Amino acid sequence: MRCAKCGATAVIGMRQHRLNLCAEHFVAWVPDMVARTIDKYAMFAPNERILVAVSGGKDSLALWDILIRQGYETEGVYINLGIDHEGYSDASEDKVRAFAEEHGSVPFRVVNVGEVYGKTVPDLAHTRRGKRVCSVCGLVKRHIMNRVASEGGYAAIATGHNLDDEAATLLGNTLHWQSAYLLRQAPVLPETHPRLARKVKPLCHLYERETAAYALLRGIDYVEEECPYAVKAKSIVYKGLLNQLEHRSP
Ligand code: AMP
Ligand code: FES
Ligand code: ZN
After folding, report:
1. Which residue has the least CA distance to atom 18 on ligand 1?
2. Taking ligand 3, which is a single-atom ion, which protein residues have CB atoms under 5 Å away?
3. How many CB atoms lie within 10 A of CB 47?
4. Does the CB atom of residue 165 touch ligand 1 within 6 A?
5. Residues 158-190: pLDDT tens digits?
6. What is the pTM assigned to this prediction?
């Protein structure tokens, strides 16, 4: 397998683009793809300040890396949910902190849910019986992101959702006739209120394996574990089904 740009040995083949690239050309191609996505959906302008929601995983750290390299003024926000299982939340926070330091101490803040709300996310879910941890977690994260963006006067909140995430959500919402959610799923959610910032997903055209390869080739150290509450989550089943379909018809 040869790189389409230089003929060197390719490290990745992207069947959907009929494109094979070497490491050097792949790490240049990914930010180009992201820049085109930002442009295509008018996500934000070069002079706008962006709040990047970083979880410590490959996608959001790759996103932050790309935006920093492209010269955007960013701040990272990590929400420590207080998930204890194998030190998941604290280990993720360490990865984000190390990334920020390695990138010339880019601005970065941590919001600790246990400290701010007096209860961690698993505790909050316990006290509201019948609520799954993941849905409480989603609510808390949205609330905090909006608050931080509004206080800091950020134009947009960028998250690391990739194409696999978006496709799995789409499939799930379709199977469950969640028409309200279907209407709201888009690369850009415009601000609906002065205190609810625009939400953007600049990685929405990249496959998960591409963001993983980018993080690996850039030497980004990320948390590989899934959230312990997500392991059985349906989205993983949907991703599996979509991968089977993709295998048959890229
Ligand atoms: P997930 O819902 O875990 O697939 O995460 C989707 C996106 O939400 C990630 O790519 C991040 O941009 C953001 N995100 C998830 N968890 C956190 C967190 N604990 N702190 C900040 N951002 C997060
Ligand atoms: Fe929210 Fe797992 S990340 S429950
Ligand atoms: Zn090449």
Report:
1. 55
2. 3, 5-6, 8, 22, 25
3. 8
4. yes
5. 999 999 999 999 999 999 999 998 988 999 999
6. 0.95
